[in-house]
Write a structure and sequence with these properties.
- Helix 1 crosses helix 2.
- Strands 1, 3, 4, 5, 6, 9, 11 and 14 form an eight-stranded mixed sheet that branches. Strands 12, 13, 15, 16, 17, 19 and 24 form a seven-stranded mixed sheet that branches. A three-stranded antiparallel sheet has the order 8-7-10, with no helix packed on it.
- The protein has two domains: about 150 residues, Jelly Rolls (Sandwich); about 180 residues, Sandwich (Jelly Rolls).
- It is globular, with a radius of gyration of 20 Å.
- The mean pLDDT is about 95.
- By secondary structure, the chain is mostly beta strands.
- The chain is built from five helices and 25 strands.
Length: about 350
């Protein structure tokens, strides 16, 4: 008698059978991650599963050789792509045989409308392109388990394409309030120079912008810390995948009651994710503003879960008031001392005198 089939992870079974590296860890350097031929896409690839990914999301890396391209794809899961390195273009075929294409470069950000046919092209004759894609395939695979249904489904989601200008680097600003203001688009040509809006409540002169992309359930936001500053600590549910865009620094992670912090040093090309309800705090130790991209499942428009709904209401509200944020005056005193030491090593002056006495 065969063993009973129980506790099956349908996504992980699929991933192991794709014939490419499946990496699991706290965080990664995606620019130097080993990749292997991926027959499904016709280029090299690898899967990167961060420890704090939660149940819904995964990340994969694609490396497209000079002059190369991926095989045409379409799939019944949502996808947000960040360009790690290189120049290229993407062609999308939407409902009613509509066509859209756009050219991208390092630090571009774009989303593939649900189940639209698409293909990526490397426009360099010699240099490889490297892309990072965050998808909700784990949720979809665990729910349906039928590969043909997920990857060969002909249904067209006409409402997901959006305004043609969304593929041209343009968009619509949707004012909500600080920290929740949104830019609706499908393509951001260069995330490192995109205009963000001030968000005082998160601390030290920081700024941010949320993105509504391809009318997806995915959450996307970009935040920036000025030189010599760091953000307030907070916590939330799992699956916020963080990609540093400019500058460099480190993040601290801990659970309530922990004696020590876990530290992760980051720069462009890194990927990491706080675990479920794990306190975390981001620190800029570079001579330029440090900007990062965060991708999760369940956004401000479509939060999907009750926890995400609470997150968008409470993410900049103090723990003392029932929220999820640690105010500077309530943080562990070691945190600021560690930061001052890190800046001293870099020869950078702190820029938080209004908050902390010199």
């Amino acid at each position: 008698m065969s063993e009973p089939r129980i506790l099956v992870d349908s996504y992980f079974e699929w991933a192991q059978n794709e014939g490419i590296p499946v990496n699991e860890g706290f965080g990664f350097d995606l620019l130097h991650m080993d990749v292997k031929p991926w027959s499904r896409l016709g280029v090299n690839g690898a899967i990167a599963l961060v420890a704090g990914r939660g149940d819904f999301l995964d990340t994969y890396v694609l490396e497209i050789p000079g002059g190369g391209s991926t095989e045409p794809q379409r799939h019944l899961f949502e996808e947000v792509i960040y360009v790690l390195d290189g120049y290229g273009s993407t062609a999308i075929q939407g409902p009613g045989n509509s066509h859209h294409s756009f050219e991208w470069g390092p630090k571009s950000l774009f989303a593939i409308p649900l189940n639209a046919s698409y293909r990526h092209f490397n426009t360099s004759g010699s240099k490889a392109v490297r892309l990072a894609s965050v998808t909700n395939l784990p949720m979809v695979m665990k729910m349906f388990r039928n590969h043909e249904f997920i990857f060969q489904n002909s249904f067209e989601f006409a409402e997901r394409i959006g305004d043609p200008k969304f593929f041209e680097g343009e968009g619509d600003f949707i004012p909500v309030r600080p920290g929740r203001n949104m830019w609706e688009t499908n393509f951001v040509p260069d995330l490192s120079v995109f205009e963000l809006r001030q968000w005082k409540e998160r601390g030290a002169g920081g700024s941010s912008m949320m993105f509504a992309m391809a009318d997806e359930t995915m959450h996307v936001h970009c935040s920036e810390m000025p030189v010599g500053t760091y953000k307030k600590a907070h916590r939330h549910g799992a699956d916020f995948h963080i990609f540093p865009v400019s500058g460099n620094g480190y993040s601290l992670f801990w659970y309530e009651g922990d004696e020590d912090f876990v530290r992760f040093d980051w720069k462009h090309g890194s990927l990491y994710a706080p675990a479920d309800l794990q306190f975390h705090q981001h620190f800029n130790t570079s001579r330029e503003p440090a900007r990062y991209l965060a991708i999760a499942f369940g956004g401000l428009r479509y939060p999907f879960s009750e926890d995400k709904r609470k997150q968008y209401l409470q993410m900049d509200v103090s723990l003392k008031d029932g929220g999820r944020q640690v105010e500077y005056e309530d943080q562990d005193p070691r945190i600021h001392r560690l930061y001052i030491e890190a800046l001293r090593e870099m020869g950078i002056e702190p820029n938080m005198s209004e908050i902390f006495a010199p």
